[in-house]
Amino acid sequence: MDKKNKRAAMQLAVARILVYAVIIFLCFLCLFFFVMLFVNSSRTNNQLQRGFTLIPGGHFFFNMKNAFTDSSIQIPRGMINSFIVAAGAAVCTTYFSALTAYGLYVYNFRLKKIAYTFIIAVMMIPTQVSAVGFVQLAYKYGLNNKLWVLIVPSIAAPAVFFYMYQYLKATLPIDIVEASRIDGSSEFATFNRIVLPIMKPAMAVQMIFSFVAAWNNYFLPALLLTKAEKKTVPIMIAQLRSADYSKFDMGKVYMLILLAILPVIVVYVFLSKSIIKGVTSGSVKG
Amino acid sequence: MAEVRLKDVMKIYPPVDTKKHNVKHLEVTEKGVVAVQQFNIDIQDKEFIVLVGPSGCGKTTTLRMIAGLEEISEGELYIDGELVNAVAPKDRDIAMVFQSYALYPHMTVFDNMAYSLKIKHVPKDEIKRRVEEAAEILDITKYLQRKPKALSGGQRQRVAIGRAIVRNPKVLLMDEPLSNLDAKLRNQMRAELLKLQNRIQTTIVYVTHDQVEAMTLGDRIVVMKDAYIQQIGTPQEVFNHPANTFVAGFIGTPQMNFFEGELLREGNDYSVKYKDYVVKLSENKAKRLAENHVESQSITFGVRPDQMRVGEEGLTAVVEVSEMMGTSSHLHTKIDGQDVIVIVPTNGDDASEMEEIKVSFSGKMVHVFSKEDGRNLEFSV
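Above: the input entities. Below: the structure tokens describing the complete assembly.
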């Protein structure tokens, strides 16, 4: 009996060690690159050329000064541009996706099923394919180098729409919409004053995700933004990396990457609780 | 002042939906499934009308058509003399209490009740006064700053009613408002609804499947079945003079006992016969039957369980189960293999299981129905 118990305890311990090992490995994968980024941003280009180390160098502020004084890029301007595009895209994506989802969920009309299928089908088309036409269109009408051109297309976000639709299905009883109509509220007022607040957790999580996606977006901005004062941060990073041999400074590049991910880290640290809540809520009725 | 008039109102759902839903009991025409058939009623100002019937009979659909949440397929609906078929719910000046309460979860009780007034741009102090007044009536003043999820079922129910009455609507619609409450609370709220109606003096249309609620609350009751109105009348009329076997069986608990028998006419005297048992009908009943020229024929007749007497003579019944209800007992018996319920006072006849008893009934309390279509023969078509 005693032997059996011991064996069971052993097995449990081994299983636990295995689980911890996997989790530690995953944590390492997640955090390693952030640590390396921080370490590298404090080393000079010369030190970086010599190879890889985990010990931070002493040139953090030296790199920062270099980055900010580089005449080919304007970091504060880039940050502001990135923020305008990311915030605008986040607001547009979530609001209009919620509105579309609400429309398809609450109203009954003849083409409802077709509209739903069409939106879901759009998800299958890669951005790169539709971008070709979009970029041509933008240049034809002289809309390149305009930030709002990057914001407007974010209104159409099938994946966010799908998430909002599922969330509405799980959380919004039609009775509430009808109660609001009988209370004398117009259809838009019902959406803005009753439905949007109920969707707050879903809105928050999608806003964070789309903000980060737009902040990190390189593909479309790189094709459309050519003027220095309109560039966003990812383009500036690319520009530093592709600088010619005489100016090339890896320390500066790492510093800029660190600055670029800072807002994202801040968002996650402060909103992680509501992100988790938003990701899980809607899946279970409660 | 707000009368509600429904004239030949019909609801027809498109045929595509029939596959999904169970509509066997409804008529299917070329246009689709008829959920409500020619609904005609004049609802008086300040009247309390109850629509009652089994599920799927069209009562909620009718209510939703009055609310404007469901389109009227055919017919006309007038509120306060004005044709409102094409008027949006928000412009009909009606209020509705939903079965699920449908409170706005992110707003406090105060904001829930104030929402309709805020939309109408009623001044703030006026809103405050009216919400507090309604809260006072419903005894929810303490909860005004709470969110709905911090309230019990009964309290949520009060808030839902409060949200409806705060606007002084022309018509107040209620869709099974008590069905989510437990039995004790339901009885209590029922009494409070009666008091409330006296206080707010507005026209109320109330939907329920519970005939006790219908009997106690309604000034008039509309009994519905399979999309058709079966009978409209005061609770007394519906109970004492049911229009057909359905109404007779639906209103009253336990259900009325039905017998397949004969109606015998001798001059202006009528009697009903079941097997060898013959009961002479009362003068009033005989008079009405004679007026309708009803002759001797096979009939279905009904007697309510509380009108059955246990005594020395009558039909032989075998008691199968005796349910002690308190002041009375319900005896579930079999007469010639047919289920018959008899209510007896608890102190008297103590019938135990499988005992044979004799039951009789008086000719005053027999309801005579046509065997073919089940309508009450005392009343002309």
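Note for the figure: The interface with chain A takes residues 67-69, 88-91, 94-96, 98-100, 102-107, 115-116, 119-120, 163, 167 of chain B (CB under 8 Å).
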